[in-house]
Amino acid sequence: MITKRPRGTNDLLPAQTSRWQWVEEMVRKTSSSYGYQEIRTPMFEHTELFERGIGEATDIVEKEMYTFSDRGDRSITLRPEGTAPVVRAFLENKLYAQPLPAKLFYMGPMFRYERPQAGRYRQHTQFGVEALGSADPALDLEMITLPISVYQACGLEGFSVNINSIGCPQCRPAYREVLLQALRSVEDELCGSCRSRMERNPLRVLDCKVPNCRAATANVPAMVESLCGDCGDHFSVLTTLLDRLDIAYVNNPRLVRGFDYYTKTVFELTVPSLGAQDAVGGGGRYDGLVEECGGPSLPGVGFAVGIERLLLALEQQGNQDFPQSRLDGFVVHFGGATKSEAVALVHELRRSGLQIEMDYQDRSLKAQMKAANRLGVRWVAILGGDEWERRVLNVRWMDEGSASEVSLDRAAEVLLRAKEEQD
Ligand code: HAM
């Protein structure tokens, strides 16, 4: 049916967009206070970018991408995430030739063919940040403090920070073996999907949510115990910095995340009251991705926040922090000459910066007053035949319940001053 939107997508109606715009404003303000600048990349890329960047054995690449051939027979994919595209743009536009780290943020839709449910959509919106060209753990810290600052600016409460280190290509293969040994000894207790991916990707078994799998793997060795010197030092500098800033966090050895590009630090920010889809943000370091995409050997770190989930959590918490804009006035006319005068007046008032509405359906005075009331305007200006002849407006101040006459020629000036005095 053409009057139904595709499954897993949302319409944002005017009642919701003011809240969205407010969150977007918090995102932009916070990102610039941390020195990040906005980058906008295309919504689709060559499929190979995600296959190489995210990893061919990941759920996203195996099952969730919107991939199609365009009319030129190129394989195109709607972006499922923003990190690989930012790295591609960083390389293509030679941003590495500028002072590093490159500090970039983005906001926009991502597409994943997932099973839709509360908080999980086929089109969702991410605010993401990437810092490219520095291995400093102070930047890993920034990737945790920045989303926290955004949450705090929005008034979000009750979120927790989970962190882990998944090592690097030097230390992870040995851990993989140790883990695989441990998993083989409990294989019979694992769910079908864990058993089938165990040999290919043993780390993913750690974040299986099936209770039996969790119980069976409760005592397997943790990655942090197998980190090489460099990864161990990196992680301990990060935790020291988190402690120094008094940021509460949970060391979560099960946190592995679903992208192959991560190295060292991974983290997730969760709001447990959201239920199954409780991650409102997540990220990590990806020191091999720039090179994997064909660029110089440069490290990177970043995160992304799901805006829909952030808004769900705010709604759940009854958060009403966002400012709702209010129309200044409504100009009532009586048709004929008063209407063209009203149209000209409305035009002038809007140009002077006021937010004004009028009637476009030649309704009665009563109906126009009702419409103005419903819109919650500060004032209603009545331009009847008598007022028109005397070149005045009859202004009713809705909050005060008073009325006054204002000369038509000075209306913009008087109404603008009244607004300034009220604000
Ligand atoms: P991600 O964890 O896949 O990471 O997505 C980031 C956030 O987007 C999640 O924490 C969640 O809030 C939201 N999200 C993901 N999928 C959905 C969905 N289907 N429906 C609604 N919200 C969703 C990344 O995408 C990485 N690129 C993050 C990153 C940036 N790592 C380094 N730099």
Structure, described:
The protein has two domains: 248 residues, Bira Bifunctional Protein, Domain 2 (BirA Bifunctional Protein, domain 2); 94 residues, 3-Layer(aba) Sandwich (Rossmann fold), CATH 3.40.50. Helices cover 39% and strands 21% of the residues. It contains 16 helices and 16 strands. An eight-stranded mixed beta sheet has the order 1-5-6-11-10-9-7-8, sandwiched between helices. The longest helix is centred in the first third of the chain and has 20 residues. It is elongated. The structure holds histidyl-adenosine monophosphate (HAM). The site of histidyl-adenosine monophosphate has 24 residues, from strand 6, strand 10, strand 11 and helix 12.
